[in-house]
């Protein structure tokens, strides 16, 4: 698919679709067309951060009803290829509500940089419906950077946005959350 990224036509291939975004790849860049979620917008706040676990995310001009963002193409997390990052990921819970992070993070065994990244995500997202935020650390939402570090690529979501998008199917999922 050809995307108009800030006035430049970019040839891309579709590589995935999530609840709120469709991902397209062009070389080492992934473009995300997002509808109905502000988590990528909040990620752009971290562009200048030096924490290795937070993805680089850039905002572009909208395309129709879609907000457009880009980030590097991060590698898929596999146990064989990235054993350290994989071990780190296994220590993360599947879900945690934002209000529970402070207590949870005290008791989990993670590198200081990972704890700092999670705390920064919570702080950065506080302007975006903090009380309704969910951290979701499933394997589809993390990747590996060029440095071999685990990247929290798509780990923050708004419970309200999810409920609006999937009111019928979400009841089973919400019941699994740690409050």
Account of the 3D structure:
- With 179 residues, the protein is an alpha+beta fold.
- It has 2 domains: 2-72, Phosphorylase Kinase, domain 1, CATH 3.30.200; 83-174, no CATH class.
- It is built from 6 helices and 12 strands.
- It has helices at residues 39-43, 83-90, 101-107, 112-124, 159-165, 170-174, and strands at 2-5, 8-11, 13-17, 21-26, 29-34, 58-63, 66-72, 95-97, 133-136, 143-144, 150-151, 156-158.
- The strands form 4 sheets. The chain has a 5-stranded antiparallel β-sheet with strand order 3-4-5-7-6.
- Strand 3 and strand 4 form a beta hairpin.
- The longest helix has 13 residues, at 112-124.
- The chain is globular, with a radius of gyration of 16 Å.
- The termini are far apart.
- The mean pLDDT is 85.
Distance between the termini: 41 Å
Mean pLDDT: 85
- Individual helix count: 6
Radius of gyration: 16 Å
Shape: globular
Structural class: alpha+beta
Characterize the largest beta sheet: strand count, sense, and whether it forms a barrel.
5 strands, antiparallel
The amount of helix comes to 25-40%
The H/E string reads: EEEEEHEEHEHHEEEEHH
Number of domains: 2
Report the uncertain regions: none
Proportion of residues in β-strands: 25-35%
Provide the spatial order of strands within the biggest beta sheet.
3-4-5-7-6
Q: How many strand elements? A: 12
